[in-house]
Design goal:
The chain folds into two domains: 127 residues, 60s Ribosomal Protein L30, Chain: A (2-Layer Sandwich), CATH 3.30.1330.130; 36 residues, Wheat Germ Agglutinin (Isolectin 2), domain 1, CATH 3.30.60. Helix content is 33%, strand content 21%. The chain is built from six helices and nine strands; from the N terminus they run ααβαβββααβββββα. It is elongated and about 60 Å long.
Length: 182
């Protein structure tokens, strides 16, 4: 699916998803625009895998503009607190990583709106380290059987069930069981 690559249009689409305009969303728009301009299309299914190393507002723009989502299994979150973004194209088997290097967007002399404008008009090559990287893609999303936890009774994906003494537990209940043993 092709989308309009005008920065203002992309920002509008990202804000509709995120709920408000902010520099974080603008950063995600800049990242997404670069990816879309360099041989990638919106991921209708799992064509593009995105690995994000933060949980800030930029990730919402990536979900809205690239189509990488937790539900489709093509958005991977690594809780590193870094503005690093890696994208893998399953068709051409190439991966590219953008790592934020320039931090003058947090300049307190600029208003929020001025920072957004500055970001959207930036050349990504001047604020990101951009490199092709090796990438071992995850399997495509799988549907797994659900199994009832023997403690809380809630159904849990079979790959997340923990077995102990011939009983099946969800992760939170297995942690309680293990904690009570020690």
């Amino acid at each position: 699916m092709k989308i309009n690559l005008d920065a203002k249009d992309l920002m509008k689409r990202a804000v509709e998803f995120h709920g408000h305009a902010c520099p974080g969303v603008a950063l995600g728009v800049l990242v997404s625009k670069y990816i879309l301009e360099h041989g990638n299309d919106f991921s209708v299914d799992e064509e593009i895998v995105a690995v994000v190393e933060n949980d800030n507002c930029s990730v919402d723009a990536i979900q809205a503009l690239i189509g990488a989502t937790f539900g489709k299994g093509n958005l991977i979150f690594l809780d590193y607190g870094k503005n690093n973004y890696t994208f893998y194209n399953r068709t051409n088997k190439k991966a590219i990583k953008l790592s934020l290097e320039l931090r003058d967007f947090a300049d307190k002399k600029l208003t929020k709106e001025e920072r957004i404008v500055k970001l959207l008009s930036s050349n990504p090559k001047k604020i990101f380290k951009i490199e092709n990287v090796e990438f071992n893609p995850p399997q495509k999303a799988q549907i797994h059987q659900s199994i009832r936890c023997e403690t809380c009774g809630e159904f849990t994906m079979s790959t997340k069930i923990k077995e102990f003494k011939n009983k099946r537990y969800c992760i939170p209940c297995s942690e309680k069981v293990m904690k009570n043993l020690f």
